[in-house]
User: Fold these one by one.
Assistant:
Number 1:
Amino acid sequence: MRIAIFGLGYVGSVTAACLAKMGHTVVGVDIAPRKVERVNTGHSPVAEQELESLVGCAVRQKRLRATLDGVEALAGAQLSLIAVGTPSLGDGSADLSAVKAAARQIGKGLRQARSFHTVAVRSTVPPGTTARVLIPILERTSGKKVGRDFGVCFHPEFLREGSSVQDFFHPPKTVIGAGDKRSVKVLARLWRPVRAPLWVTSLQSAETLKYAENAFHALKICFANEIGSLAKSCGANGRQVMDILARDTKLNLSPLYLKPGMPFGGPCLGKDVRALCAVARRNRVTLPLAGAILKSNSRHLRRAVKLVLATGKKRVGVLGLAFKAGTDDVRESPVIGLIRELLRARCAVRVFDPRIHMERLVGANRAYVERQLPAFPRLLARSWKELLKTCDVVVLASNAAEFMASAPRLKRKVVVDLVGLLPSQASSTGRCLNLAG
Ligand SMILES: NC(=O)c1ccc[n+]([C@@H]2O[C@H](COP(=O)([O-])OP(=O)(O)OC[C@H]3O[C@@H](n4cnc5c(N)ncnc54)[C@H](O)[C@@H]3O)[C@@H](O)[C@H]2O)c1
């Protein structure tokens, strides 16, 4: 393929040299004359392992050259990659001026194009940018139509500086935020020689994924540093603690607890986060991240309450009461908090949980529900049927196995799915709302 790459920084120059090594003919575009000159004289514009020799080799084989002229770079190219910077502005938002400028140049170049061209945005941009900002610029400046004359994908980059050539050839995954099917095919063909799982999503999901991943990496680093500091203040070995934690791929570094759904609850998580923060306060260690966990959890409960109230229905049936599926433990169950808020908003609430029977609730479990939800005995429905008869909106608050096959029962009901149990169109005649899209 003939490929134009806009931006010869850490991402663009590695991508240019590696694609040239894969046999493509690449033209790199940058606004910095020094970078263009470096590439054209066979040198890497950035310091990165293995890159100097890759660039030298590609330039000698005439598979790679660089230019300041983006319009010229597009001549005969089937694919453009945008890899320019998106640094922070003063208010924290992303500066899109370089991606917009690159899109304008590509648009101008596309005026002369005689065949379908694919534009892949590799720069990290806020969700919605490709559809709302870049596609309109490309259409306006080219005078052509997206989907018909050219295609656009958001195609996030996952390489890490310091090992980016290795990461390029061995990525954790390939993600294509699809603007159109033809462009997805072009990119899937481009990456066929690189073995990695391929995910095709919407433009917005791919854009969001990139931010989610970087936020997750940042979160993990801060978490490890907070635990390290707390451990030190307690005379524990923080490195060992985090090492053992990280080696547990069943509970800790696993998909578990990483699904958008209900707030957490139960007898342990809230209690132990509170106690950990208390130890930190006593030892005068400031842990802003740990301190924010409970706030984040209650904020999420408020979002859930708002979603239920937004349906405008006052007769609410809640499915699930225990703090998670498979147990009858109601201690610190977020569902109890949800029901309390709905009652406060003058909703008529009924709740059904096949594992919970008033007569079998004992000890701390019973004391908790009696204290937090005195009206509980008259809210508890004895069956699905009883619950459905008395409500206009059903709130799925548990992903208990029993509820999995619930879709047919929920016909003609508005469903608020707080656990991601149903596909969003599951309720054929009613509406299905959820908190994570
Ligand atoms: N650096 C990383 O490890 C990494 C990893 C994944 C994703 N990203 C994302 O990729 C994008 C690029 O990152 P980077 O680190 O390579 O940036 P960078 O600052 O190293 O390089 C950007 C290059 O774009 C050039 N440029 C600016 N405007 C231009 C224009 N109109 N036309 C052509 N070139 C132009 C600049 O001169 C510069 O050489 C960013 O959005 C970044 O968030 C970076």
Number 2:
Amino acid sequence: MGKRYRTGDQALVREINLSIILNCLRETSPLSRAQLAEITGLNKTTVSSLVRELIARQFVREIGFDSSGGGRPAVLLELNPGAGRIIGMEIGVDFILAILTDFKAQILWRHREDTDQVEGQEAILAKAFDIVRQALAVGESTHSPFLGIGVGVPGLVDVSSGTLLFAPNLKWCDVPLRELFSEEFNLPVFVDNDANVAALGERYFGAAQGSKDFIYLSAGVGLGGGIVLNGQLYRGIGGYAGEIGHMTVMSDGERCNCGNRGCWETLVSQTAVVNRVRKAVEAGNASLVVQLVEGQLERISIPIIVEAAKEGDEVARQALEETGVYLGIGIANLINAFNPELVIFGGVVSLASDYLLPAIEKTIEERSLAWPRRMARVMASSYGPDACVMGGVALVLHDILSRPALIT
Ligand SMILES: [Zn+2]
């Protein structure tokens, strides 16, 4: 009777070991079999057998010899870029961004399209599907299989069903995104909150590699947050944790799309920054921004404000400094509450990080407790606006790397 269980255990152990080898090679490559044995603590025979299986299944490839150590040169291994193609997508409030990557997450194709929330859900999803079709067409010529689609969306997501429950800035409710995408494309689909996805992207490929306790902030149309504690995304009891953009920062502040007043995001979103510049201009202050948008104030955007700030424009710099103070206030609260190692600042507003960070740092210095503050670094995202799509790729990879034997 015991045999049945032992067989199961062995298969499970092999599955776990395959996963460990793949993750090692994802984090560091190239590596030799001997180095893999040393890092994992598995014996060399086991490593050789696991690597043989991974090579046969095309997840791993040999890429020449390491002759640096003297003695017989060791064959080096890395993830096989041709093992498959992955699509990462972000459905933002006013854009859709998608990338197609190989199995090593190297970007092969990139596409961005502006959208407007007033177009409506059906039209925006039709655009998203069309972009996936374009990615599939590009990827088809490479003759390697499609492994999945990872999608980040700006709202609350039920991750187990892949349903977008509520996106205040898109005004969408209960959209079964995973179901819709997988019916259309017959591929594994993963859906999560955009900031959670971006946090995963930073952890897999970016600024948070090797960091176990960090907070990712994404400031764009809204302000999203992904909280990683002890190496795991913190989701809370219902999966909705991380909505730090809706912390009340000003009791009688502006109305937020969530219905509350004075939410943090009403003070630091791209709209908040643009409005600061606009108000200063309308109050009669001279600014280079006006020339850059040829007098059309509705064209003011973060890149335009950054361009003006680079030229020393006082209005632009002042608006960014004020934004930095409000960012700093919220970040100081997060540092006190979570004692993170890193706070990574991303989204389109982070394009202005050179002008925001001094005010952020100064405010944190003034407002957070000294002990957690000394341990926390605040930095701009390594991918900026691309963090979420990279995270979409990470969602798919994460699934494969944690259960390679199940993928056929
Ligand atoms: Zn709110």
Number 3:
Amino acid sequence: MPLDLAFSIEANDFVDPDRAYDLYWSGVITSKKAFICPGADCSAQVTCANLDKDVQNMKVVPHFRVIGAHSGGCGIPEEAPFKEVIEPAAPESRERQTVDQSIVDVFKLDRPDSYYEERKLDPGADVQVAKKLAKARKPYTPKLGEKGPSGPVYSVRSIVSRYIRYREDGSIEFRRLNILGQDVLYSSIFKCIWEQDLEDLPKYPVIYYGWAYVDRTKNDKAYRIKFKKSLKQGGENLVTSTFVSDSLIDSFKLKNLMAVRLSKVCKKPIPTAFVFLYGQPSVKVYNERNYATFELTNLDMIDVNYDCPLPSKYDK
Ligand SMILES: [Zn+2]
């Protein structure tokens, strides 16, 4: 059973694999081995696999793996597999409610300032004491430190990553994501850009995806991401695109990840990427032509992949 959470010695906090990945690419975490079991008083070593990969897909997704032996009193090894946990014998019991709540992830459109904060442990500090203090800082998650809910989701990339992990562990049909107060099933989160009329699209932001060409704009100050398929208005095809400016990349904590991915795609013989973005298209007029564009305020709202990271039914 993979762990949902581990204690990061470098960040001095409990982290889920998504946050571990963010902290690695923002430079707070430097080693994939500097984690231990989240269980109280347990020192089993934990590795976060794929932390250093700029790729993620069905085979490469960041996840925790226990390397060392759990201590005697650690309850984590005996945890029941996910399916048994979410189908308890007494469906009306309080446990059931807890579990129901625990499988909704919350998508937050802004990260708290403390997200990338480092609370470096002094060399020689007692890790178990640090773990207790970290647990006390998070009163809102009573199950923290055991196998339990992960933290909120702050990026489209993490949603893709969780989709892959939940599909792997067989829990996808029970998982929901709460976006601006609305619960959506993980299995119905993504919407392909495929010649839909703007009138028929949701009147609120959702996660759109599709293959796109990536190149530099004429003034060389931004990347242009132009989807292969167009949205429509009336009978008219609208070129559908979004722009990622260099200044937006520069102000982004994970700029290394974003810069690596975009520049690698641009250098491919056919510079295409599989792109997800959270937003709502609007129509812009340029040189008397109509275009559909997505405005990005924050690079957490876009995920650029070298290939389709999802099952083949999405790869179109
Ligand atoms: Zn343990």
